[in-house]
Amino acid sequence: MTVPPVTRCLSATDFDAPSEDRWFEDYVPGLVFEYGSVTVSEPEIVEFAHRYDPQTMHADPSLAAAGPFGGVIASGWQTIAIAMRMYVDHYVTHVASLASPGVDEVRWTVPVRPGDVLSIRTTITEARRSRSKPDRGLVRTLLEAINQDGTPVMSLTAMNLIALRDPS
Amino acid sequence: MTVPPVTRCLSATDFDAPSEDRWFEDYVPGLVFEYGSVTVSEPEIVEFAHRYDPQTMHADPSLAAAGPFGGVIASGWQTIAIAMRMYVDHYVTHVASLASPGVDEVRWTVPVRPGDVLSIRTTITEARRSRSKPDRGLVRTLLEAINQDGTPVMSLTAMNLIALRDPS
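Output (structure tokens, whole complex):
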């Protein structure tokens, strides 16, 4: 296993609350943050592909070179995993996360190639307190992975259940 | 890197066409297949988590033991990656795949724990020829990961662009 990707905060402003003291109340619709970056390497693309997504376009550089993309491209699931690492390191609360029921509308819009440098952009689109369990709320986030040209390469809508700082 | 998971076909019947000669015409709505299985180990869960999803519930067995799940559970993205391996090995055409625009309605319904044995079930829900590019079609598939108790632990709707055997 290689060293985990290093991430850094790109945004001028982050949450008021650090991830060690971040609760449902801190996720306010309209907030936008950017975090990153991670450089994607060909060995990492091929390693992930061999294990989880062994299609030629991801797993075999020589065959992929003759294919429609002219070289290997990352599995879409690896692109999400790399984005997830930045999402977890910087965006998700480290104290109040109560798991995720799922995500919607995953879209892979641009191929990710060796040497690409990815960052993420998070836009809070909804924050709704649970009626049945008033100690928590559901936060919806548009998560985009952006390449070095500023082009979104992947987007999805994440759902996170997050505990309230003050449920009273 | 560990050896890729071994998969085997569970279904009594597979496609008429093997994956080396499988085209858009072979994906007929209503067809259901099952494939697998893969046993999920704690080291694999922790390794994936350290790299891509370092939340305590996935990455730290001792802290996770004191948490709401009573032990580590797999990152939802790892569950999908494991399902993807079976999907690619057995279900996706190996000759006519033209990439995927995305997936919809990802749901993680039951935690995946060390020792769980996962298989997949694929249900073809739609197969529609492209109007703008008549040499291909879009196939929608309900992909479910099923554990050793027969319980679905994850589901999503996949989209695959697949070339026609006979575009004339």
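Chain A has a mean pLDDT of 92.
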